[in-house]
TrEMBL record:
<dbReference type="Pfam" id="PF17191">
    <property type="entry name" value="RecG_wedge"/>
</dbReference>
<dbReference type="InterPro" id="IPR014001">
    <property type="entry name" value="Helicase_ATP-bd"/>
</dbReference>
<keyword id="KW-0413">Isomerase</keyword>
<keyword id="KW-0347">Helicase</keyword>
<feature type="domain" description="Helicase C-terminal">
    <location>
        <begin position="533"/>
        <end position="699"/>
    </location>
</feature>
<dbReference type="InterPro" id="IPR027417">
    <property type="entry name" value="P-loop_NTPase"/>
</dbReference>
<dbReference type="InterPro" id="IPR047112">
    <property type="entry name" value="RecG/Mfd"/>
</dbReference>
<keyword id="KW-0233">DNA recombination</keyword>
<dbReference type="GO" id="GO:0003677">
    <property type="term" value="F:DNA binding"/>
</dbReference>
<dbReference type="Pfam" id="PF00271">
    <property type="entry name" value="Helicase_C"/>
</dbReference>
<keyword id="KW-0238">DNA-binding</keyword>
<dbReference type="GO" id="GO:0005524">
    <property type="term" value="F:ATP binding"/>
</dbReference>
<keyword id="KW-0234">DNA repair</keyword>
<dbReference type="GO" id="GO:0006310">
    <property type="term" value="P:DNA recombination"/>
</dbReference>
<dbReference type="GO" id="GO:0003678">
    <property type="term" value="F:DNA helicase activity"/>
</dbReference>
<dbReference type="GO" id="GO:0016887">
    <property type="term" value="F:ATP hydrolysis activity"/>
</dbReference>
<dbReference type="GO" id="GO:0043138">
    <property type="term" value="F:3'-5' DNA helicase activity"/>
</dbReference>
Length: 767
């Protein structure tokens, strides 16, 4: 009989060979009890198989959280409707409606100590109240109030005089709350809240009557037009007191401990109704432990889903390519330039992936013009050297054709066969091309989505490259994968995505960044112009064309008003052609044109048969016409900054200095101008993307919803980047150690993960 020992912490060590006979596995928890006859009975405890009581308790808690808001005391039909319009239907929704700021109502402040900018509580007696008319004829209602320390003026600019006079009678005492402002020497409070004191009542007694509104840091909720903060606050207090305890953390106890998190219930309580000694600034900036907990929790489940998705791919067997330089070395010799440091680094990352015996799943991100195509070609050649085929997918025919021309040019000299496969390829030519692909005679296939159509069969697909990723869904990536046996996948995007966002949107891909442009580029000079300077702008276009260059004029197309916008664009083109540049050659490009028509226009622009191309935004990302040196963007304020950056990338591709002119309305708001100024001040795509993200929020930034990423309830990816990294590390580590989430203490994770991701985890699966 093997001997059992005690470990240092006092627990019993059961020898491994006894585990089987006892029906146990490593990590199991057991309870030992004596039965009626004094025999020891060994039972596996709840950690592995949650007991009926535990699951029942969880189910009840979950059910409670689904309680509709209209069942809460103080929520009438009207309030329920307003809340529902903001997406707050259940008490759980309400628990995650976080205050966006707090008012410090912990103490009553003497009037002479009220500081401008602060929102305070003070108490006193009304001295006078009446309408005041200024010298300029403006009217407002003014109340003077005083306490033992001094006086304060209250003002209202919209008021009902009779009603105000009745409420604010001299001698009446109240508790006031409001933000103090200062005009010159005068401090005043505009439209303060008031709680009147009853005859003879003390301030302390009155405050005790409303423990939600006084004597604490009081939450102020966002998104509550039509709702009264005071009433909402009372409702929220009820919700938090009754239902926050139902929220249970699904995070493993170890993670909560090691990351110094709070239990979720406690964190929710603290965020809505902070403790008396909490730091209001830390709360407002989301730096306190309660926010940290909520944000971590939210990020953790996002990252856990992504980690499991990625694991699903990386564990599969894949092709282990070897790097034998048959084609890559000769190509590097042919090039008239050396690779940039960043290109070299990213290429090394790609090669390491390709050599590993698992499928590569990598995103290469790099600003327009950084040389992604070349990196992709080098990766393609590695696959070709190993006897595999490569598919390169571009989102449009024009782009596919451009890639074909670029790549074919080099491959011809290397003796590598390249074919272009687009939907305009018809009949015999198409059948022939498909045939050659299927027989493996074509080594690199370049095309649009036509590449992944059913009819296309590869002989031996080893690498799929997807250009300009965000136009493709995850689905297409999956289809491409199915064209071979676990081929490597390389995704390229020209949209500089801030790192934190990339981690969420493309979290299942490894990330490489080409953060350097080839030398010798002159940055595009960017200027904001208003309509009043339109003639000068036309002068610039004329000068550039006279110098042998070409120009773009870009019009926004906003979907809902597409028709009228389109009219504006075509009218503008006519006006430019007839009245402004009758002597120059103009072309028009817009989304309503047939693909062949668009192709034809693009081709003549590339072939310098057109001087000025008037286009809607269909002008393609990635289009390369180095001779175009000026771009005028009309209604620039209607574009996202990242989109402007993409558009601007169409110029500045040659050696000549290029210009981008952002036409903005004369009536553009200060904020609007400030936003556009970002474009003047930098050409760094990452900085622009960050500014854009800050302004527009992640939902709009890339259409993250389409990417299958759950919305954030509390997290803010700009503010909470650090927590995201921590949560990601923890989630990836956990997915590594327990990919099926079956270890003791991990059961709640599975359920919670399924709940948060809904059906999306599978749907967004990479294949
Ligand atoms: P993008 O990343 O926008 O796809 P491209 O691959 O189209 O950029 O490259 C833009 C231009 O820069 C091309 O004409 C390409 O030949 C050139 N290029 C690429 N790499 C280098 C380099 N290391 N040095 C100089 N020019 C380069
Ligand atoms: Mg490109």
């Amino acid at each position: 009989m093997p001997v059992m020992k005690r470990s240092e912490d006092g627990s019993l060590l059961i020898p491994a060979d006894l585990l089987g006979p006892l029906g146990l596995a490593p990590g199991d928890r057991v309870a030992v009890e004596a039965d009626a006859e004094g025999r020891l009975v060994l039972t596996r405890s709840a950690a592995r198989e949650p007991s009926v009581e535990v699951s029942l308790r969880q189910a009840i808690a979950r059910k409670n959280l689904e309680t509709p808001m209209q069942f809460i005391k103080g929520v009438g039909p009207k309030m329920a409707e307003i809340l529902a319009r903001k997406g707050i239907v259940t008490v759980e929704d309400a628990l995650y409606l976080l205050p966006n700021r707090y008012e410090d109502r912990r103490q009553v402040v003497p009037m002479n100590r009220l500081r401008p900018g602060e929102t305070c509580v003070f108490a006193g007696e009304v001295v006078s109240a009446d309408v005041v008319t200024t010298k300029g004829g403006r009217r407002f209602f003014e109340v003077m109030a005083r306490d033992a320390s001094g006086v304060m003026s209250f003002k209202w600019f919209n008021y009902h005089a009779a009603f105000m006079r009745k409420a604010w009678q001299p001698g009446r005492r109240g508790i006031f709350t409001g933000q103090v402002t200062q005009y010159g020497l005068q401090r005043e409070v505009h439209h303060p809240d008031v709680d009147w004191l009853a005859e003879g009542e003390t301030v302390e007694a009155a405050m005790a009557r409303d423990p939600v509104g006084f004597g604490r840091l009081v939450p102020v909720y966002p998104l509550t037009e039509g709702l009264n903060q005071k009433a909402l606050r009372k409702v929220m207090k009820e919700v938090v007191d009754r239902f926050a305890p139902c929220v249970e953390s699904a995070l493993p106890a170890r993670v909560i401990r090691e990351r110094a998190l709070l239990p979720l219930a406690e964190a929710l309580g603290a965020v809505h109704f902070p403790a008396a000694d909490a730091d209001p600034r830390a709360l407002e900036e989301g730096r306190d432990p309660a926010h940290r907990t909520l944000v971590f929790d939210e990020f953790f489940f996002l990252e856990l889903g992504l980690a499991l998705k990625r694991r699903g791919v990386t564990l599969e067997p894949g092709i282990a390519f070897s790097v034998n330089h048959t084609y890559t070395k000769p190509l590097l010799k042919l090039l008239p330039f050396a690779l940039t440091e960043a290109q070299r680094r990213v290429l090394a990352e790609i090669k390491a992936d390709m050599m590993a015996p698992h499928p590569m799943h990598r995103l290469v991100q790099g600003d327009v013009g950084c040389g992604k195509t070349l990196v992709a070609l080098l990766a393609a050649l590695v696959a070709v050297e190993n006897g595999y085929q490569v598919a390169i997918m571009a989102p449009t025919e024009i782009l596919a054709e451009q890639h074909y021309l670029n790549i074919h040019r080099w491959c011809e000299q290397l003796g590598v066969t390249v074919a272009l496969l687009t939907s305009s390829l018809k009949g015999k030519a198409k059948a022939g091309a498909l045939e050659r692909v299927a027989r493996g005679e074509v080594q690199i296939v370049i095309g649009t989505h036509a590449v992944i159509q059913d009819k296309v069969e590869f002989h031996r697909l080893g690498l799929g490259i997807v250009d300009e990723q965000h136009r493709f869904g995850v689905l297409q990536r999956g289809l491409l994968r199915k064209k071979g046996e676990n081929p490597d996948i390389l995704v390229m995007t020209a949209t500089p995505i801030p790192r934190t966002l990339a981690m969420t949107v493309f979290g299942d891909l490894s990330l490489s960044v080409i953060d350097e442009l080839p030398p010798g580029r002159t940055p595009v000079e960017t200027k904001i112009c208003t309509d009043s300077r339109r003639r000068q702008v036309y002068g610039i276009i004329r000068d550039e064309v006279a110098a042998g260059h070409q120009a773009y004029v870009i019009y926004p197309l906003v979907e809902e008003s597409e028709k009228s916008e389109l009219k504006a664009a075509t009218q503008m083109a006519e006006h430019l052609a007839n009245d402004v540049f009758p002597d120059l050659r103009l072309g028009v490009l817009h989304g309503r044109m047939k693909p062949e028509e668009k192709e034809a226009v693009m081709r003549s622009f590339k072939g310098r048969e057109i001087d000025i191309l008037v286009s809607t935004t269909v002008i393609e990302v990635g289009i390369d016409v180095p001779n175009a040196t000026v771009m005028v963007i009309e209604h620039a304020e209607r574009f996202g900054l990242s989109q402007l950056h993409q558009l601007r990338g169409r110029v500045g591709r040659g050696s000549a200095t290029s210009r981008c002119i952002l036409m903005a309305s004369d009536r553009l708001s200060d904020d609007g101008v400030k936003r556009l100024r970002v474009m003047e001040s930098t050409t760094d795509g990452f900085r622009i993307a960050e500014a854009d993200l800050e302004i527009r929020g992640p939902g709009d930034f890339l259409g993250t919803r389409q990417a299958g990423i759950p919305d954030f309830r509390v997290a803010n990816i700009l503010r909470d980047g650090r927590i995201l990294e921590e949560a990601r590390a923890e989630a990836f580590d956990l997915a590594e150690r327990d990919p099926e989430l079956r270890a003791p203490g991990h059961e709640p994770l599975r359920e919670e993960l399924a709940r948060r991701w809904g059906g999306r985890l599978e749907l967004a699966g990479v294949a």
